[in-house]
C-alpha cells in the first residue's frame, strides 16, 4: 500500500500541474491525500460503469485523463450525471485524481508519445499541448494515415487531402485540438506544416486547412487520448500498489 500523497508526487514529477492550461482543472478532485491506496484503476473518462468496476475489484483510487469536475458546480445531487458520479465515488470511498492538459503537454505525455511512436524527428512543442516534427525522408499521406490508425486503434479516421502525396512536416494535438483556430494561425501556417493530426475538427477550421493545402487526419477524441492509460500505468511502476486498466473505459461511440 502507498499513501495517496506519494502516488500523486510520482505522477506530478512526470507531469507537473504547472503545465496545465489556465482553464484546466487537473489534480486531486475527490479524496484525501492521507488515504492509503492499495489498488488503482486508470481511465480516460470517469463513468458509472468505471466506478462500479472500481468497487467490484476493490480499487480506492481512480486516475483519469479527463477531469470529473471541470466547470464550477453549485450543487451535487442525483439530478445530474456528475452529481450521481460524485456521490457514488464519495459514498464508496473512491479517490479521483485527474491528469488533463499537463498530461497532454508533458515530456513523455500523450502528444510527446504519439510523436515518438509516429517517428517524428526534430520535435517541437515541449511543455505545450502539441508536438510538431518531421518524418525523415517523407511518407505517403495514405501510409501515415494507416500508421495513425494502427497506433490508436481507430478505424474510423476522417482524412482530407491527397493520399498519394509525400508529406514530411506533421503537427499533433490530441483531443479537441480541431477547435483551436489560433493553433492553425500561429503554428501550422507559419511552420509550413503539411499534416495536422487531431480530433473534434470544426468545419471552418477544416476549410482553412483545405485552402492552404494542409492535410488532415481526424481521430475520435477518446481514441486520440487512450494512450494516456498506458503512460500513467508505466509511471506508476515500482510503487507498492496494484494498477489496473479499466475494462469499462471504452470509446463512447459504437465504432
Oligomer: single chain
- Mean pLDDT comes to 97
The value of Rg in angstroms is: 19 Å
| General shape | elongated
The major beta sheet can be summarized as:
6 strands, mixed
Q: CATH topology of the largest domain, which one? A: Udp-n-acetylmuramoylalanyl-d-glutamate--2,6- Diaminopimelate Ligase, Chain: A, domain 1
Question: Can you give the helix content as a percent range?
Answer: 25-40%
Distance between the termini: 38 Å
Structural class: alpha/beta
- Total number of β-strand segments? 13
**What are the secondary-structure elements, in order, as H or E?**
EHEEEHEHEHHEEHEEHEHEHHE
Widest β-sheet, arrangement of strands: 7-8-10-11-12-9
Could you list the spans in which at least 5 consecutive residues all have pLDDT below 50?
Answer: none
CATH architecture of the largest domain: 3-Layer(aba) Sandwich
Query: What is the assigned CATH homologous superfamily of the largest domain?
Result: NIF3 (NGG1p interacting factor 3)-like
Number of helices: 10
How many domain modules? Answer: 2
CATH classification, class level of the largest domain: Alpha Beta
Amino acid at each position: 500500500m502507498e499513501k495517496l500523497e506519494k502516488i500523486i508526487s510520482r505522477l506530478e514529477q512526470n507531469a507537473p500541474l504547472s503545465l496545465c492550461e489556465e482553464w484546466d482543472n487537473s489534480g486531486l478532485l475527490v479524496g484525501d491525500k492521507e488515504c492509503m491506496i492499495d489498488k488503482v484503476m486508470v481511465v480516460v473518462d470517469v463513468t458509472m460503469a468505471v466506478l462500479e468496476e472500481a468497487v467490484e475489484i476493490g480499487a480506492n483510487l481512480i486516475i483519469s485523463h479527463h477531469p470529473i469536475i471541470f466547470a464550477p458546480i453549485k450543487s451535487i445531487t442525483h439530478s445530474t450525471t456528475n452529481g450521481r458520479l460524485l456521490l457514488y465515488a464519495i459514498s464508496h470511498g473512491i479517490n479521483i485524481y485527474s491528469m488533463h492538459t499537463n498530461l497532454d503537454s508533458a515530456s513523455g505525455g500523450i502528444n510527446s508519445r504519439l510523436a515518438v511512436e509516429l517517428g517524428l524527428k526534430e520535435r517541437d512543442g515541449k511543455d505545450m499541448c502539441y508536438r510538431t516534427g518531421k518524418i525523415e525522408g517523407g511518407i505517403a499521406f495514405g501510409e501515415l494515415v494507416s500508421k495513425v490508425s494502427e497506433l490508436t486503434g481507430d478505424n474510423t479516421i476522417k482524412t482530407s487531402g491527397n493520399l498519394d502525396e509525400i508529406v514530411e512536416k506533421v503537427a499533433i494535438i490530441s483531443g479537441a485540438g480541431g477547435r483551436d483556430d489560433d493553433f492553425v494561425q500561429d503554428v501550422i501556417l507559419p511552420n509550413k506544416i503539411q499534416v495536422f493530426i487531431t480530433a473534434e475538427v470544426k468545419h471552418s477550421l477544416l476549410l482553412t486547412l483545405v485552402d492552404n493545402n494542409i492535410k488532415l487526419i481526424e481521430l475520435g477524441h477518446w481514441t486520440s487520448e487512450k494512450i494516456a492509460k498506458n503512460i500513467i500505468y508505466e509511471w506508476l511502476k515500482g510503487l507498492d500498489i496494484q494498477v489496473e486498466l479499466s475494462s469499462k473505459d471504452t470509446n463512447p461511440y459504437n465504432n
